[in-house]
């Protein structure tokens, strides 16, 4: 068995994700979003010239990471591949999902295109099913204004349970507020809520059977309800990732549990 993530987060991040902290106490920020939402523009705005690109380990998917200091804290920013979903049907989606799930970022900034919220909210809700450490960067607000689209960001923030920061990344607008909220989230000063989407009764019945079993196995290493939903989806890639990152043979373990109960 390899080094555990808990004991040496710095070397695990490097080995498993090719993500490099400069100091052990640096915070890790993931940037997620649909393609063309201005994610790389936000990334550039946050990190300036302090960036480098490589590949995700074992994949031909580009891994861009950058660094910035803010109020005496260091932040490593990981620009995840642009995806419409995290349902893991492509290498990009697996990379994005695995980093959010197993890379344990201190905050996930989800960049949304303010001109097509409906399409963008899909990914946001999927991320919120995994983690509550989410900040929404509502980008392209200039385009939204031009198209006469009005968004009540306070109401949206209340509804989603996470901060929503309007931005025009191309003009650096909203970036300071984003840095402030990232810092606050990393220091646990922001109370956010995890989204729990209610499914139909037959699915909820199965979940109420599986979720407690998963909770016993994984404790807080992975959100049990979300994992149970992926298992119901027949998503084999999450089973592989659990073996790779957490060293559990989930299929065998569930079979053993079923024998006992
Ligand atoms: N009008 C406007 N354009 C933007 C803004 N942010 C980014 N862009 C432009 O949108 C395009 C896509 O941006 P990019 O950062 O590459 O998107 P990504 O695919 O999400 O990484 C580029 O032409 C950017 O210059 C913004 O706030 N307003
Ligand atoms: Mg990009």
Automatic annotation (TrEMBL):
Domain FeoB-type G, by residue range, is 26-188
Coiled coil (residue ranges) = none
Instruction: Extract the PANTHER family matched here.
Output: FE(2+) TRANSPORTER FEOB, FERROUS IRON TRANSPORT PROTEIN B
Q: What is this protein called?
A: FeoB small GTPase domain-containing protein
The lineage, from the top, is: Bacteria, Bacillati, Bacillota, Clostridia, Eubacteriales
């Amino acid at each position: 068995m390899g080094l555990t993530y808990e004991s040496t987060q710095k070397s695990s991040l490097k080995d498993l994700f090719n993500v490099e902290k400069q100091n052990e106490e640096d915070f890790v920020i993931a940037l997620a979003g649909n393609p063309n939402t201005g994610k790389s523009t936000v990334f550039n705005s946050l990190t300036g010239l302090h960036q480098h690109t490589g590949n995700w380990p074992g994949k031909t998917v580009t891994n861009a990471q950058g660094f910035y200091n803010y109020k005496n804290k260091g932040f490593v920013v990981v620009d995840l591949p642009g995806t419409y979903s995290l349902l893991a049907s492509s290498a990009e989606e697996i990379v994005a999902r695995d980093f959010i799930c197993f890379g344990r970022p201190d905050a996930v900034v989800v960049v949304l295109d303010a001109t097509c919220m409906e399409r963008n909210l899909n990914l946001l809700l999927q991320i919120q099913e995994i983690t509550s450490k989410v900040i929404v960067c509502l980008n392209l607000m200039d385009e939204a204004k031009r198209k006469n689209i009005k968004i009540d960001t306070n109401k949206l923030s209340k509804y989603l349970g996470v901060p929503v920061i309007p931005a025009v990344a191309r003009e650096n607008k909203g970036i300071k507020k984003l840095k402030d909220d990232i810092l606050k989230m990393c220091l646990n000063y922001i109370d956010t809520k995890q989204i729990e989407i209610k499914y139909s009764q037959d699915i909820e019945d199965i979940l109420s059977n599986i979720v407690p079993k998963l909770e016993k196995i994984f404790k807080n290493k992975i959100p049990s309800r979300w994992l149970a939903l992926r298992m119901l989806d027949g998503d084999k890639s999450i089973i592989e990732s659990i073996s790779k990152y957490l060293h559990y043979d989930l299929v065998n373990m569930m079979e053993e549990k079923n024998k006992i109960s």
